[in-house]
Write a structure and sequence with these properties.
Tetracycline Repressor, domain 2; about 190 residues
């Protein structure tokens, strides 16, 4: 039985979304392709109709995961009152909910150490995804030029991702405290 072309695209998207959640929650090595495909009720062999390798899926899942986080941050910023966009963005990223939901959270915070050990092609995909995320964030940051806003966005995002990673390793009270202190610090640091 032949499926329409959009069926293949929908299946691929399902695989990527599921892998993005799984990689973030379990790490790149904790997400076996056979388990992923079984959980999606797809065949292991069917995986190779969509991807060359697990590495290929990892790179795409990372990109999709970061796009999902970007969308949520932009929605938070756009729902904020005028001049409160940056605060809303920082509050959303450094929220307890985001911290506690690793499977749907920022893949940079969840997978950064792992990405550094990946092949160059994966690191290039990571770099491209992060650049796109930074560009989306930068429009909410103060600065006289796009270049200034981009530089500030790089530092802000790097710091917040590190904060989120540290907070995830702490107990509930320590986690809350780190996130709260970081929200105050980053808002002051970028002049929001």
């Amino acid at each position: 039985m032949r499926y329409p072309a959009e069926h293949k695209q929908q299946t691929r998207a399902r695989i990527v979304r599921a892998a993005a959640r799984r990689f973030r929650s379990r790490g790149g090595e904790g997400a076996a392709i056979s388990d992923l495909m079984r959980d999606l009720r797809l065949t292991h062999g069917g995986f190779y109709r969509h991807f060359d390798s697990q590495e290929h899926l990892f790179a795409e899942a990372f990109t999709v995961g970061l796009e999902q986080v970007s969308e949520r941050l932009i929605l938070a910023a756009e729902a904020a009152p005028r001049r409160g966009e940056l605060k809303a963005l920082i509050d959303a990223y450094l929220s307890l909910e985001h911290c506690d939901d690793m499977a749907n959270g920022c893949p940079v915070a969840a997978l950064m150490a792992e990405v550094t050990r990946r092949p160059a092609a994966t690191r290039r995909a990571f770099q491209q995804a992060v650049r796109a995320h930074i560009a989306r964030m930068a429009r909410y940051l103060p600065g006289q030029t796009d270049e200034q806003r981009q530089r500030t966005a790089v530092m802000l995002f790097s710091g917040m991702a590190g904060t989120l990673n540290v907070a995830r390793a702490l107990t509930d009270e320590g986690r809350r405290r780190v996130l709260e202190d970081a929200r105050i610090f980053y808002l002051k640091a970028v002049g929001g």
